[in-house]
Structures
1.
Amino acid sequence: NAGVTQTPKFQVLKTGQSMTLQCAQDMNHEYMSWYRQDPGMGLRLIHYSVGAGITDQGEVPNGYNVSRSTTEDFPLRLLSAAPSQTSVYFCASSASAFRVGTEAFFGQGTRLTVV
Amino acid sequence: AQKITQTQPGMFVQEKEAVTLDCTYDTSDPSYGLFWYKQPSSGEMIFLIYQGSYDQQNATEGRYSLNFQKARKSANLVISASQLGDSAMYFCAMREGKGAQKLVFGQGTRLTINP
């Protein structure tokens, strides 16, 4: 019953470093997405994918890259970490990319601190 | 423009009382879905309840019900007989028919249940 798995759970980066947050789902879901959660701002969409090979930008894409080479994996890359990217990151997946009633399943989150 | 608005940053309720968490939304799409998620202090996102724009009846799931007032564009979550374990952040979210890929969240309401 793995669902959506995110690694790592915690990470501290220095300004300017790059890293990749991993996300994998075992439910054969079409749709995957990345959110960041900051105090008082809810969850904001960074990037999303409606299937392997297809990605698009969300509300706050700057400083992040994604790719989706397989249905299962959707890594999020921070190109050059900045303190403003300190946040909690959630990966989510849904069975359908286009049905409004599709429930989103979330990973446990990654708490990232950039110093 | 803010698509989802939760106007109550924090709420305090006595155990066993009912509580209503407010959510208003903004869309011109006739097809949309509204979701409520719970985030306890452990951080995971837990799906609670869903309401579709074409649903004739208000959604209910155990102690959770959704007071859906389409003309007022509100989708308030009602928790009956609150329990200490209901203390958490609660997020309202919406997915629109045209942009069904994007699940947009409100800022959240922190609910505290007092014994």
2.
Amino acid sequence: DTAVSQTPKYLVTQMGNDKSIKCEQNLGHDTMYWYKQDSKKFLKIMFSYNNKELIINETVPNRFSPKSPDKAHLNLHINSLELGDSAVYFCASSQQGGNTEAFFGQGTRLTVV
Amino acid sequence: AQSVSQHNHHVILSEAASLELGCNYSYGGTVNLFWYVQYPGQHLQLLLKYFSGDPLVKGIKGFEAEFIKSKFSFNLRKPSVQWSDTAEYFCAVISYGNNRLAFGKGNQVVVIP
């Protein structure tokens, strides 16, 4: 009965490939996020969606394209993967306007070889 | 620019020692404040949060934090740490009504038995 679930948990792929990570939340939240955590554990916001609309896009290469088919889902598609894309990607959700804490998924460890 | 600062990225201490981690932010207006913990190999979990009211908040596992508005700070404390407190600790801030949940760079805490 996971609140925020991401799939897959691990993803190993070659440079140049295209891959997707899926995220679903069953908390009824309006806002969803994607964060990137690098090898130094720094957490950087990538995107924020509110009710399926893109609110924040933080200087992320346009190879990264989020898609929100409904407010419970926020998927991340990455084209032409590069070595530097290797990281742990976390999905999170919260009520609109950050009026509650954010709940995080288990993370997807992406390794580009 | 809005930012969240955490100092002393690496902290090593013995069991039963006291822990204090600093967090400063540079947001204007009303903010909501959080401390998250990430145990090795796991996702982020909420330790405690401050929205309003008593500036001294108590969280799980004996942690507490104090919001000092005049200092733009939200420091985390635990009087006596245990080996199981070994983790990465993140301070996070969101402006009220905003969708941008921003994190500090984290503190890696290692507790030696």
